[in-house]
Design brief:
The complex is a heterodimer of chains A (195) and B (200).
Chain A (H helix, E strand, L loop, with lengths): L2 H27 L6 E3 L2 E3 L10 H10 L9 E6 L12 E7 L6 E7 L15 E3 L11 E6 L6 E4 L7 E7 L16 E7 L3
Parallel strand pairs in A: 7-8
Antiparallel strand pairs in A: 1-2, 2-3, 3-9, 4-7, 4-10, 5-6, 5-9
Chain B lengths: L4 H37 L4 H6 L8 E2 L16 E9 L5 E5 L7 E7 L4 E6 L8 E6 L1 H9 L9 E4 L4 E9 L6 H9 L2 E4 L9
Classes of the chains: A alpha+beta (195), B alpha+beta (200).
């Protein structure tokens, strides 16, 4: 007696539930297609252009963030280390090497989806190319830890996952066709817990 | 319509499977429709948020905490100012004098947040910002008799009349904070008044 209404209800529930759920998941999972992946680092050089794919356009319309244009800079993010494990505030990491050519860069850590750290913070929650200490070859070695470290220290959130954001300002990286040869800094885990 | 219990069970199962398949196809369609139409109907996009800041044709500084429009700085070292413009009635001129900021950059977007033009201090003439945004028709008129005031300006063509500009300045150390702030505070984003001189 109630078969037809039940069948229609099943079809509608799956259509609306599945459609909305899959869209939310898709928009939350990634900024879009067309990512540059260099080890754990990920950047989307075309996401602010008219050539961006529909997912990227949808994502930026929903996010409402002010993106960097091509002459401004390129934002790389990393939420895993070189071994592929999630970056966690309970562990310590070393960030070593060079960035791709850029006039300036800034680096900070924030919880996924969280606000960037304040510039007024007492801890070194953000570093940039002008204040970082380098060795003779010009490469840097930054300790990522929740507690103080000697040398270059980037204070990360004490607990839970975090995401690194490395912004290159005035970089040819975005327009470069030889992106694969670019080297990004390595992220190595040095220990976890109190050890 | 009365059926014996023997034949109706498999038939009902088949109908349920058919309903589920229909639902999945509908879900896929709905997914595509939402993704494709979201940019048109979104009320959380950057342009809507900047419009919500107040009147157009002026720069608004953004703070570290999201304001009621949800806009905030996205890098601790980068100071930000945004300005929504409309060039339908005439060109808009953006200026800012460089007083020693180590880096500044400007991005111009149309109302759907597609990049129209971008520039930084190295690519600008003299290190300062001096730029005129106009529609193709206005630009043709402008170029015919370039007013003296904007003879050194960069002319930017935009196909859509509405859009917004984002001006960033970098303060890599605390001592640069005042200069970076001043640079943004003194930046202007105003309609450019120019009189077409009658010539014989």
């Amino acid at each position: 007696m109630f078969r037809v209404p039940i069948l229609i209800a099943i079809a509608l529930a799956i259509a609306f539930g599945g459609g909305i759920w899959s869209t939310l998941v898709a928009l939350d999972a990634t900024v879009g297609f067309g990512a540059i992946k260099l080890g754990p680092w990920e950047a989307f050089p075309e996401v602010q252009t008219a050539a961006a794919d529909p997912y990227a356009k949808s994502h930026r319309a929903n996010g409402g963030r002010l993106l960097y244009a091509s002459a401004e800079g390129l934002v790389f993010t990393a939420s895993v280390d070189d071994a592929g494990a999630r970056l966690s505030g309970n562990c310590t990491y070393r960030l070593t090497g060079h960035t791709p050519p850029a006039r300036l860069w800034t680096l900070f850590a924030a919880p996924p989806g969280g606000a960037p750290p304040s510039a007024q913070s007492d801890l070194p929650t953000a570093l940039n190319s002008r204040i970082v200490l380098r060795d003779e070859a010009g490469s840097f070695d930054i300790a990522l830890a929740a507690t103080a470290r000697p040398g270059n220290w980037l204070a990360v959130p004490a607990n839970g996952a975090f995401r690194l954001t490395l912004t290159l300002f005035d970089t040819p990286t975005a327009g470069s066709s030889g992106l694969i040869d670019l080297t990004m800094p390595r992220i190595e885990k040095t220990g976890c817990g109190n050890a | 319509m009365l059926r014996s219990g023997l034949g109706s069970r498999p038939r009902f199962a088949l109908q349920v499977i058919f309903a589920i398949v229909t639902g999945l196809v509908g879900a896929a369609l709905l997914h595509l429709i939402i993704v494709l139409l979201l940019p048109e109907f979104s009320e959380r996009d950057a342009y809507t948020r900047i419009l919500a800041k107040g009147e157009i044709h002026r720069f608004y500084r953004l703070g570290e905490k999201p304001d009621r429009t949800g806009l905030a700085k996205d890098d601790p070292f980068v100071e930000l100012a945004v300005c929504a413009f409309d060039v339908a009635d005439g060109p808009v001129r953006l200026t800012a004098a460089n007083s020693g900021v180590p880096f500044w950059s400007l991005a111009i977007y149309d109302q759907s947040s597609n990049e129209v033009f971008s520039i930084n201090d190295r690519t600008s003439a003299g290190g300062g910002l001096d730029l005129v945004i106009a529609t193709p028709v206005q630009l043709t008129t402008l170029r015919k008799s370039l007013p003296q005031a904007i003879s050194q300006s960069i002319l930017v063509e935009t196909r859509q009349a509405d859009g917004y500009a984002v001006l960033r300045s970098l303060a890599p150390q605390k001592s640069f904070a005042d200069i970076a702030s001043q640079f943004l505070d003194k930046a202007t984003c105003t309609p450019f008044e120019w009189r077409t001189r009658s010539r014989f």
